[in-house]
Amino acid sequence: MAEAHQAVAFQFTVTPDGIDLQLCHEALRQIYLSGLHSWKKRFIRFKNGVMTGVYPGSPAGFMVVVVSYMSYNKYKQLDPSLGLILCNYGHASGVLVGTGLWVTIIMIMRNVLKSLLSWHGWMHARHGSVSWSTRLWMLLVKVFSGRKPMLYSFQNSLPRLPVPSVKDTCRRYLESVRALMDDEQYERMKGLTKDFEKNLGPKLQWYLKLKSWWASNYVSDWWEEYIYLRGRGPIMVNSNYYAMDFLYVFPTSIQAARAGNAIHAIMLYRRKLDRAQIKPLMLLHTIPMCSAQYERMFNTSRVPGVDTDILQHMNESKHIAVFHKGRFFKVWMFYDGRLLLPREIEQQMERILADKSEPLPGEENLAALTAGDRWVVTPWARARETYFSRGKNKQSLDAIEKAAFFVTLDDTEQRFEPDNPVKSLDSYAKSLLHGKCYDRWFDKSFNLIVFKNGTMGLNAEHSWADAPIIGHLWEHVLSMDPVKLGYTEDGHCCGEPHPNLPGPQRLQWDIPAECQDTIQSSLTLARTLADDVDCHIFPFDDFGKGLIKKCRTSPDAFIQIALQLAHYRDKGKFCLTYEASMTRLFREGRTETVRSCTMETCAFVRSMIRDETLLKMAAEKHQNMYRLAMTGQGIDRHLFCLYVVSKYLGEDSPFLKEVLSEPWRLSTSQTPLQQVELFDLVRHPEYVSSGGGFGPVADDGYGVSYIIVGENLINFHISSKHSSPETDSHRFGANIKQAMLDILDLFQLEKKAM
C-alpha cells in the first residue's frame, strides 16, 4: 500500500486535543516539482511566443537598433521627442523611437519575405539547373528569413492561399475529365460548366474572395469541418491511416522494452515541439513550409457529436493511456519533476503486462465505439452523453481523451517474414489499420501500437493534420530508437528500474447492460468493415529513384504513370484519379488534388510503343499539374469551397453537385521521407521504413500509398474491398510491378550505357 500513500498529499483527523495534521513530505515534494515543471513550461511558451512574434527580429537586434539610435542622438545631442518627454539626453524618447524603428524594420522584412514567397517560378526550373534569377531570388529569401528560425517563426511571413479564377478552374476541370468521357458526355459537361462559369460561379466567387481576405486560409477550416468532422461514417478504415516500423530491422523482441524507448522518444519530440525547437521544414533548404498542423499532434482527441465532431486539445497532459488485453491504464510520464527514462517506462509497461486482472463488464470492447458509425441513430455520441458524462466513467474517459496519446500493447505478433513476405506484411498492415476493432482508440490523434514480438507502428486520426506531420514524428522515433537510445545485450532499455516509482493506475468503469449492447452493435459493424479490407504491401526493389533519375524523369511522375498503366491493365479502363499534394507553401495550407489521369497519360498508356516522347509528355504534364496544385491553382479545393458557399446561400448548382459526387476509384499518395539526414541509408540500408497506408476511398476502387526509400527501394501499400468483384489488391500489385518494369524498359538504359 506504499504507492497508495504516496499518492495522497496529506491527511488529518479531529482529536480532543485539536486537529492532528500529518504531512506526506514525498507527496508535497512531487507537487512542488510538478508545479515547478508547469511554470517552466509556461515561461518557455511565453518566451517562444515573443521570439516568434518578433521574428525575423531578435532581442539582440533590438539592442543594436536602440543603442545605435540613442548613441547617434547623444552624439548629435538630438531630442527625438521634440521636448515632449523630459529626460537627460532623451533616453526615454530614444528607447521609444528606437523600438518603433525596430518594429518597422521587422514589418518591412516580413512583408518583403511574404512577397518573395508568393513567387513560385523556381518550381519550373529543370532538375539540376537553376537560373540566375532563381538564385538571386533564393539569396533574397535567405537574407530576409533571419537567423535560427524556430518551428513557427515563418507563420506570419507565409502568403495566403490564392483563390483561382472561376474561369481557370472550370477550364482545368474540363481538361482533367476529357480523357474519361466520350464526346456526348463531354459536350454535356461542357454545357454545365459554361453555364456555371457565366451565371452562379461569379456570385459564389465574390463570397470566397471575401473570406480569403478575412481568414488565414479560405479552405482549411471548411475542409476540416465538412470533410472530416461532419463525416458520419466510421473513421476506422475510411479516414484513419497507419505507419509501419522498420522493414528489415528488429531492435528487440521484448515488447515492454520497445514500448519504453518509443514512448520516451515520442515524449522527447513533444518537449521539442512545446519549446518550438523543431526546425521548420524548408524546401531546397530555403523555402519555409507552414507548421500550423503540428499544434494539435499531442493531447488531442476527436470528441463525437450528433451532427458534427469536435477536436478537443489540451495545452498540457502528463500521462498516457495504455490498453492491454481488454483493460485500460493511466500511466504518468513524469516523476521527480522530470520525464521518465526509457527503462522506467519499460518498468511501467512490464507492470501492465504482468497484471492478471480481468476486464470489467463492457470494458474489453469499449473502444469499438470509436470504430463504428457516427449517424444520429447509432452509438458513440449518444452513448458518450448518456453513460460517460458523470462518475467514474467520466473520470476514466477523461483520462483517455486528455492523454498525450494512446498506446496499445497488442497481444499478437506482426513483422516482415522473409519466408512468407506477402502474407506477413498484409497481416501487419491490416492489424495497424483496424486491429481487432476494439483495441485502438481511433479518436485519439494517434495510437502507438507495440506488438508482442517488439514490432510497432502507428494509427493516426486524420482530421487534425495530414500524413507528413505524423510522418515527421515517426522519423524522429525510428531514428532515435535503435541507435541513440539503444538496448542492452539482453534486449532491455538502457538504464535501471526506479525503486520507488508509483505503478500505473487501472481505469475503472461501470458500464450498464444497455451500453454494452450499443458497444456490441458498433463492434459488429466495425468487424464487417474490417473483414472486407483487402490489403497488400510489397517492397519493390528491382530499381528505385536512382535509376528513374537516369531516365531524366520525375520519380513521382514515373510512379503515377505506372499506376495508370497498371490500372488500365487491371480494369481495362481509366478512372478519376486522386493524388494528394500539399499546399503548405501557404499559411495553414493542407492538401490539394492532383488529377493524375490526364490526356497525355492516357495517350501513353494506349500506345506503349518504344518511344520515350509520349512518356516524357505525360510526365511533364503530371509535373505541371503537381506544381499548380502546390501553388494554389488546383481544381478541387476551389470547387469544394464554391459548393460550401452555394449551400450557405441556398443555391443549387447541377455542375458543382455532379463534380463533387464523382468517385475517386484510384486514390494515391506518396509518403515523403522528410528528414533524410537522420538515416544513413548508404552505410545502413537496412534501416528503411516501410512507410504507411490507408483504406480504399471507393467501394470498387483502390487506395495506393508509396514511399521512395533511398536510391533502390519503393514500398507500395495497396487497399481495396473483397466485396467488389472489380478489385483485387494482389492482382493490382502484380500489375504495378510489371508496369514499372515495362516503362523502365522503354528507356533502354542498358543500350545507352554501352
Automatic annotation (TrEMBL):
What catalytic reaction does the record list? (R)-carnitine + hexadecanoyl-CoA = O-hexadecanoyl-(R)-carnitine + CoA
Per UniProt, what is one GO molecular function of this protein? carnitine O-palmitoyltransferase activity
Q: Does the keyword Transferase belong to this entry? A: yes
The EC designation for this entry is: 2.3.1.21
Q: Which InterPro entries match?
A: Carn_acyl_trans, CAT-like_dom_sf, Cho/carn_acyl_trans, Cho/carn_acyl_trans_2, CPT_N
Tell me which residues make up the Choline/carnitine acyltransferase domain: 161-738
Bilayer-spanning residue ranges: 50-72, 92-113
Q: Which EC main class describes this enzyme?
A: transferase
Localisation per UniProt entry: Mitochondrion outer membrane
> What's a single GO BP term from this record?
carnitine metabolic process
From the UniProt record, give the pathway where this protein acts: Lipid metabolism; fatty acid beta-oxidation
Bilayer topology annotation:
Multi-pass membrane protein
Keyword Metal-binding included in the entry's annotation: no
Keywords attached to this entry = Acyltransferase, Fatty acid metabolism, Lipid metabolism, Membrane, Mitochondrion, Transferase, Transmembrane, Transmembrane helix, Transport
Where's the active site on this chain?
H462
Highest taxon of source: Eukaryota
GO CC, one annotated term? mitochondrial outer membrane
> Where in the numbering of this chain does the Carnitine O-palmitoyltransferase N-terminal domain appear?
1-47
Similarity field:
Belongs to the carnitine/choline acetyltransferase family.
Protein's name in the database: carnitine O-palmitoyltransferase
Gene from which the chain derives: CPT1A
